[in-house]
Amino acid sequence: MAARYDNRHRKLKTGEYQKENGDYLFRWTSRDGERHTVGATSLEELRRKEEEIAKDKADGIKQCARNVLLNDIFGLWKATKRGLKQNTYFNYVWCYEQYVWSDPIGQTPIQALKRSDLKRFYNRLYEERHLKISTIDNVHTVLHQVIQIAVDDDYIRKNISDNLLKELKQSHNVDETHKRALTVPEQNLFLDFIKPETSRYNHWYNIFAVMLGTGMRVGECTGLRWQDIDLEAGIIDINHTLVYYCHNTGRNEKGNKCYFGINTPKTKSGCRQIPMQDYVKDAFIREREYQEYNGIICKQEVDGYTDFIFVNRFGNCQHQGTLNKALRRIIRDCNDMQFEKGGKNPLLLPNFSCHSLRHSFVTRLVEADVAIPVIQQLAGHSRSDVTLDVYTTVTNEFKMREFDDFQAKMKHQDEEWHRNLLEQKKAENTGEQGNDREEG
After folding, report:
1. Where does 108-240 have alpha helices with state H?
2. Shared-domain flag, residues 265 and 302
3. In this structure, which of 101, 248, 367, 379 has its CB flanked by the most CB atoms within 10 Å?
4. 3-state DSSP of 20-70
């Protein structure tokens, strides 16, 4: 084949062509027999693209991926993703469709997507849409999995979202500390405020006391049935969890957007038995008496499960949103009461959620020196490092008490050392005096 040259007398390689308007083309055939063409306004730019194409071919990257969008890969993820609980899967789908699908980033070809594009996307979510980091974390979780599908299927070379959320948190100086548990005084203030029959929040005492005294996850507690507890033996049997779906992607056959469902516990270790503390048993008994007195019975059936313990006045199941709203009102009114009492530095309740009650339960176990394997089993954690990493962030009260004990021990050791030293010197002086008398 005769050599070909461009209009500047530069020799063109195989597959290179120059158009009449001066632009350049490169044509090649991929391994699947498909013909492809890429263009450029200069020969230098064209050859840079040729190098990228050659590298992609060498690495086995699919040539057809140039027209595949991020949203297309999400569709592949939806069709192939397995191993997630239904509510987790719905959460991931909802997060992607809510925040990514209609954003320009969702329409970006997967091979054109850059790490900087994702950074700008996360910054928009944080700065312009004012999403919480926890929400962006959920978006990142599903995005990372979607992009990993593209890596595994040879659409792209590497996962550009690796460690990206960590960088976002650092750049915005986001505090990653765990939500702290209630201190013992705060816990007592909380229960003492809602327990009296004269309290307007008295009907909330039983469920919050049970959550605080067992460390159950919210769905485990709201999903409890009377047959799941043995008041005589003082045992709670955790064998399922109640889930509240409220996403567009999770409609039931009646077309309702929000509905309850029954699922297995979060982990295999979530199936467990929890002994009742005395005040937990008392809370169950109080709840039964309260419902009998007010004529409240469970009217809801969820996936064949019914006779739930904690229901509202209409006999329907409780869910986390309602409970957290109740907590916010309790915190507000309790703190108002504390301020009205006057005095300097009144004890106040911090802002906390239902999950903080779980933190508090485990923290009380840590403070009581309960063995980590026992705490792990009671909390239903699959691994002990989860127990250590997430739930053993002890309160300032406990840390100060431990430090005071440490100081007391060190002071005692120091005093004992000085006392022994004085006794030793006294013995030495007594011995020297005895020797002097003998010599005299």
Report:
1. 115-127, 133-152, 164-171, 184-194, 205-214, 218-222
2. yes
3. 379
4. CCCCEEEEEECCCCCEEEEEECCHHHHHHHHHHHHHHHHHCCCHHHHHCEH
AA letter at 296: I
Let me know: does 149 contact 77? Beta carbons within 8 Å: yes
Whether residues 35 and 140 fall in one domain:
no
- CB contact set of 350 (below 8 Å; sequence gap of 6+): 180, 182, 186, 331
Identity of the amino acid at 61: I
pLDDT in 10s for each residue of the chain, 440 residues: 678 888 888 988 888 888 989 999 988 787 667 787 888 889 899 888 888 777 766 665 565 666 789 999 999 999 888 888 777 888 899 899 999 999 999 999 998 899 999 999 999 998 899 888 888 999 999 999 999 999 888 888 889 999 888 877 777 666 555 567 899 999 999 999 999 999 999 999 999 999 999 999 999 999 999 999 999 999 999 999 998 877 554 444 444 568 898 988 877 888 999 999 999 999 999 999 999 999 999 999 999 999 999 999 999 999 899 999 999 999 999 999 999 988 888 999 999 999 999 989 988 998 888 888 899 999 998 877 767 765 555 555 566 667 777 788 888 888 888 888 888 877 777 766 555 555 55
Question: Distance between CA 326 and CA 342 in Å, rounded?
Answer: 25
Q: What is the CATH number of the domain that holds 100?
A: 1.10.150.130
Rounded Cα gap, residues 277 and 283, in angstroms: 10
**Domain limits for position 45:** 4-60
Alpha-carbon distance of 274 to 235, in angstroms, equals 6
Residue type, 187: Q
CATH number for the domain that contains residue 239: 1.10.443
